[in-house]
Structures are given as C-alpha cells and as structure tokens.
Amino acid sequence: MEIIPNNSNKNYEGLLSRISETYKQGFQRAVAAVNTNMVTTYWKIGQYIVEFEQGGQVKAEYGKALLENLSKDLSSLHGKGFSRSNLNYMRLFYQRYPICEELPHKLNWTHFCELVKIDNPLERSFYEKQTIIENWSTTDLIRQKKASLFLRLAASKNKEGILKLSKQGNIIQQPIDLIRNPCVLEFLKIPEPYQFSETELETRLIDHLQEFLLEMGKGFAFIGRQYRITLGNRNHYVDLVFYHRILKCFVLIDLKKEEVGYEDVGQMNMYLGYFENEENTEGDNPPIGIVLAKEKDDLLVKYAMHNISSQLFINKYQLYLPDKEELRREIEKQLKIEK
Predict the structure, then answer these.
(1) Burial track 292-311 (b if 16+ CB lie within 10 A, e otherwise)
(2) Stated pTM of the model
(3) Cis peptide leading into 175, omega within 30 of 0?
(4) How much is the pLDDT for 79?
(5) What does the CA dihedral 234, 236, 242, 247 come to, rounded to 10 degrees?
C-alpha cells in the first residue's frame, strides 16, 4: 500500500470528505426517488381498483372477492407486496388522496398506511403535517395516534385554532405551543393503582427519554437531571433541564407525583429567575418553567400565579391513554358552537 506523504494528509482528508458527502447525498436522493415512485405507483393501483369498481365492470358477488383474486394473481406474477391488506390500503389511499399531484412525497408508504386509517380529514391532515414537521418514523406516528395527540391539542382550541392545527400542524412559535394537556406518559408502563416517588418518576422518564422527548415535541435537547443551583449557601435541584433549540431558551421541568401546591409555583419562579440571570448567555431567550403534576386545582393555580412570569406553566400528566371518544365529543361540540 502506498504511503501518502504527511504534507498531503490534509488534502487527502478533504478529498475523502467530499467524496463521502457526495455519495451520501446521492444515496439519499436515490432512496427519496424510489420512495416517490413507489408511492405514486401504489396510488395508481388504488385508482385502477376504485375505477374498476365504480365502472360497474364487476358483478356484485365477484366484487366481494375482487381484492382476494387480485392478491392471488398479482402475487403469482410479481411476488410479495400484493397482500389483500396492502391492496386495500392502496384502494383507500386513492380515496383519501384523490389528487396525485398533492401527495406529500416526504412520507413513505408505511406512513400512508397509518394515515389512511384515520376517518376524520382534519385529524388525518394534522398527523400528515406533524409527521413531516417532526420527521416522525412510522413507529412515532403510531404512538402519537394512540396517544390522541391531535385530540388533546384541539380540545383546548376554538374552531379557528382547530382548523389551523389541521392545516399547519403544531408549529412551535411561542412558549404556550410546548404545552400538551394532559401530558401522556403511558410509555412508563406504571400500573394502576400505583405508588411511586417523584425520584422514581424522574428515573423512569430518563430511562424512556426518547419516548418522553417524542411526547414533549420537536426541538428539545436534554441538558441534565437534578440540576444544582446554589443560593445563599443552600443547594436547590431542578428535576429536569432541557434546552429548546427553536425557542432558544432553557426549559425547566419540576415533577410532582400528586397535586401541585402554591409553593411549587413559587419554587419554579425562583428557578426561572436564577436561570435568566445566571445561566443564560447572549442570544438566549427567557427560560420556560413547567410544573408537571398529577393533579391541579385551577383556582389555586390562578391565584398562585398572580403577576408571575407568563413563561411558567402548570401541566397535568396521566399514566394511561386518554379517552378518545370523550375528547372527540368535546371537539365536535366546539365546532358546532362556533358554527
């Protein structure tokens, strides 16, 4: 093997880096092109099936077995990829997205298989936009659907807010956009009835940090747990500290296993003051504080937060998946009232 002279190492490393980057970009474009072509192909197959059914070219008794027959014959001709289930998704894909030119090509086929299962067009549109915004994998999308993210966000909004959420997704522009009420922590798999300490809750969240960050939303970077601050020769500890790269600020989280108290609000306000004055650097915005509690008394919280920073939020968490139908009824009620 020929040895490259020392004075050529820098030029060689530059060459290696350029070739490697060019290859990665080319490979990514090739994968994207294949994905786009496959999605378009499946849409076209769905179109053929629907138009064949609508054209009356099949007798009723045969129509019931159309997908089974297609699956058998296409699998014989082309191999895998033509199960009855997959053909049904292609058929539904065309019905949900009738205009091929408007397909969001950043999504792959497995994303679309999950999206077409959603009957409500507002809900489906939200998950489509949010998958693109937060670069969700199919597994992430499934989790957020199960956790009723759209319903939780929409339940606290008026008609205009619900429609905006559907058309744009949940875009983080201000601190309030971080709040998901309630915050669902079903991934911790803590059974009910349960007994656990705040330390155990914190530890479980760290052990499931990826799922927790998915629940919190895009933009969070983990800084540390039990973050120590010293005031008047006394140490205080913030349970969880993050930095939000979109809002450009620290996000402090204090965990409470029971109902939040007025003293918890005062403590978080102290943390916010400390971080703004001692931890912030040039370009940082004021920190955000979130007290994450199992229960909260709205009236107590209202008075406890009187004249306190608008950067402080009291948010509830729950250890089980929300009641989707109850949330859906609340949203439908709001849409009817606005109408």
Answers:
(1) bbbebeeeebeebbeeebeb
(2) 0.82
(3) no
(4) 85
(5) -70
Tens of pLDDT, residue by residue over 129-161, are 999 999 999 999 999 999 999 999 998 888 888
Question: Quick check: 265 and 308 in contact, CB under 8 A?
Answer: yes
Distant-in-sequence, close-in-space partners of 198: CB < 8 Å, separation ≥ 6: 239, 255, 256, 257
What local confidence, expressed as pLDDT, does residue 60 receive?
46
H helix or E strand, kind and range, residue 174: none
Task: Supply the pLDDT for residue 63.
Answer: 56
> What is the pLDDT at residue 245?
95
Task: Determine the pLDDT at residue 213.
Answer: 94
Residue 222's Cα: distance from chain center in Å? 17
Residue pair 119/102 in contact by the 8 Å Cβ criterion: no
Q: Mind listing the domains of the chain with CATH numbers?
A: 9-114 (no CATH), 118-173+322-339 (no CATH), 183-320 (3.40.1350.10)
Residue corresponding to tokens 């020769």: 233
Below-50 pLDDT ranges, the chain: 1, 60
Radius of gyration over every alpha carbon of the chain, rounded to an integer in angstroms: 26
pLDDT at 313: 94
Work out the angle between the directed axes of helices 84-96 and 66-78 (0-180°, nearest 10): 110
The pLDDT value recorded for residue 327 is 87
Please state, as a whole number, how many other Cβ atoms lie within 10 Å of the Cβ of residue 9: 10
Q: What CA–CA distance (Å, rounded) separates 289 from 286? A: 10
Asked if the peptide bond before residue 182 counts as cis, ω within 30 degrees of 0, the response is yes
Q: What is the SS3 assignment for 317? A: strand
Strand-pair category, 288-295 with 220-231 = unpaired
Given a contact cutoff of 8 angstroms between Cβ atoms, the answer to whether 163 and 331 are in contact is: no
Distance CA 332, CA 335 (A): 5
